[in-house]
Amino acid sequence: MGAAGAGRRAPRPAAEVLKPRQTRGDARKMARLGCKSARQSSDSRQEYYRPSVPNGFQNSRAGEPHRNRTKAILAAHPEVRGLIGRNPFSALAIVGVVSLQLGLAFVLREQPWWLILLVAYAVGAFANHSMYVMIHECAHNLLHRRPALNKLASIVADIPNVLPAAISFRTYHLKHHAFQGVHELDADLPHHWEAKLIGNHTVRKALWLLAFPVFQALRPLRIREISFLNGWTVLNWALAVTVDVAIVVFWGWPALLYLVASFFFSIGLHPLGARWIQEHYTVAPPQETYSYYGPANTVAFNVGFHNEHHDFPSIAWNRLPELRAMAPEFYDGLVAHRSWTKLLLQFLFRSDMGLHSRVLRDERQGIDTQTDANQVLSEQQGVS
After folding, report:
1. pLDDT for 95-150, tens place per residue?
2. What is the DSSP string of 231-294?
3. Cis omega (within 30 of 0) on the bond before 286?
4. How many alpha carbons lie under 13 Å from residue 194 in its C-beta half-sphere?
């Protein structure tokens, strides 16, 4: 080799297999990210590969990662089946929080804009976020046995959100469970153009979080195998628009401003916005799903228990901590977050974290896209 090429590194292959071995550098990175780290988890023993193109998505050759762990937990702890079930009292939380938000909108109708934004950031964001969790519970039919009553409850929970999405969320979220990482079916994944546009730039990531509801609303456009519009969607939008118009007519624009600000803060540039990063953005690949075990779970209906939820979507929010306690050997070895605030700052300012920090796969495991996803998830958990 000549002098010119002596110091030149050999080109990297188009894709490299990354072994599921945790190095000291990995441990230090997890510590900086505010994560808990322990033994390698069952879903981190998959082979996956990262394309050599800059900022490319990670790719997995394996199927959806939660089914095998669900089966293993049921085999080791059959008593877990006793946790499966609904929580009808969640309906009281919906009525209470929706009433709180409408009441605060009325109280703030004649207050200055800065006070409205302050209350929206400190109180309204948590209230709206909790209603997103209730919409999520309704999507899994965890309030009532009849799907129609769950849909109605989710529409009521959606009232404080000025851009209604309860019914469409139900449709696409269930496909996210059944087809996690399949870009054509998982609306939780960013568009390729979206990830490329935002990149790893701090300001662009902040703007992305601020406008996250808009980006999220555009994602279903690529899910062409699933119908978006139905009678329930129309009802969802009709009720939300009617309430919004009534608020402006009878209470004025400041009251609506409070709900708009609460909505954007609840899933955007706010510590609560880190929840969307926490769930599936890879800080310890090849692990794909991450839980959050911090104090905010108290006001977020345990939505941080995300690995537990993906393993057993038929367990209501109030029993997810019991699942973790029953099967500690399956969860203590997973990487988990302790602070949404710290994760938010890490996501914004670390150059190695961005929208490409997600895992894609092509494997659909033979599931028909038209099959009822809740039925697929029930069969996964051995529920008839």
Report:
1. 999 999 999 999 999 999 999 999 999 999 999 999 999 999 999 999 999 999 99
2. HHHHHHHHHHHHHHHHHHHHT-HHHHHHHHHHHHHHTSSSGGGHHHHHHH--SSTT----EE-S
3. yes
4. 22
